[in-house]
Amino acid sequence: MKTKLFNRLKKYNKIVIARHIGPDPDALGSQMGLKELINKNFPDKEVYVVGAPTIKFKYFGKLDKLPENFDCSQALLILLDTPDKKRIDGVDTKLFKDSIRIDHHPFMEKTCRVDLIDDKASSTCQIIVELFKGNKYTFTKKAAEYLFLGMVADTNRFLYTNGVTNSIKLFELVSYLIKLTKIDISTLYTKLYMRNINEIKLQGYISQNLTITENGVGYIKITEDIIKEFNVDSASAGNMVNEFNFIDGILVWIMISEDKKLGLIRLNIRSRGPVINKLAENYNGGGHKLAAGARVKTEQEVDQLIEELDNLCQEYREEGVSEDEDK
Ligand SMILES: [Mn+2]
Fold this sequence. Notes:
By secondary structure, this protein is of the alpha/beta class. The chain has eleven helices and eleven strands.
């Protein structure tokens, strides 16, 4: 697995690292962390991290612009944390001489020449650490910080570690990083989890107004008027979906946000049992078994999705699957 990446890193002098649109700390952390590792271990290479910037995660540092007349046909593309074509940010994979994808999402479609996919890994950052771990390559403190942030965020502070085997691996990798580079975990957590008071007020509003269906689907529709009223970023409701876990009687929960400008409705879906990503794929989305997203155009589609999720919850309850079973 490792040689597929390292042979390419040795071969190509120009390397472009891309990831998905609407980046999260795993996408940005793996991107910036990998750039730092290549710069450190292969200092002669030209490395660019591309994609639209985001204000929310500005502590990941600046992204690059490809130089004018940049010749993709001589370059290697590394695509991170992105399972499908439509969510690739800022590059056309076909233009590159060679391409490799490193990802932990379940396989959806072919996008690069070579795939390094480990869907047992709980983040793309985890895979990057695994690839570079060992005596051969050096980690910098900065790279370790980026990668740690991604591992923390995608597991929701090590809550979703993907079963015993991956937990063991993940904690060993984290321990390896801390031992090696002495990263300061508390400072990093403050960066990642600092929130603004308006968002907390919106969270209160959501708690007060959540609708719960018969079989345990909790949902709320956040209109643009509400976003305005609370004076928060339009992605805020979606971003706080993880805060609504561990509520007795709710098995699946959804933050539904309206985007009038793009004429669509975004759904962030989480589950504490029923597998939801297959269903989300029918609604222009997808993701992981217990964490997925969807984009639809009409209220009817939203209602239909809620109903189908409610059915999933009913089936799940009837099967009597234990909620703490190893996923
Ligand atoms: Mn990820």
